[in-house]
Amino acid sequence: MSDNLMITVQEGTTSTRITISGRLDLLSAEKLRKAVRGCMRHTAREVVLEMRDLTYLDSMAMGAILSCRTLLENEGKKLVLAGPQGMVMDALRIANFHKLFEIR
Length: 104
What we know:
Order of helices and strands: EEHEHEHHE
Helix content: 25-40%
CATH class: Alpha Beta
Structural class: alpha/beta
CATH superfamily: STAS domain
CATH architecture: 2-Layer Sandwich
Number of strands: 5
Strand order of the largest sheet: 1-2-3-4-5
CATH topology: Transcription Regulator spoIIAA
Radius of gyration: 12 Å
Oligomer: single chain
Number of helices: 4
């Protein structure tokens, strides 16, 4: 495991986009939670988690995504997953995330 997760946040009028790249795992999951907590002050009602350049996620990462969803829902916001590829998409499907999240 290594903490090489890169995160950028772009605030828009209708949505906030969090772009993540690299590995999302036990060591980097808190970085994602921190970024999402920062989005709660934004006015946009939708937070898009752009996963196109995410190369790996583990069960701790999936737990972090679920906790982010709960944080946002408690503020009346929606978390959308966008662009997962390859093994990341496979892991999300196996975990039935497609039933819990809108995946674009």
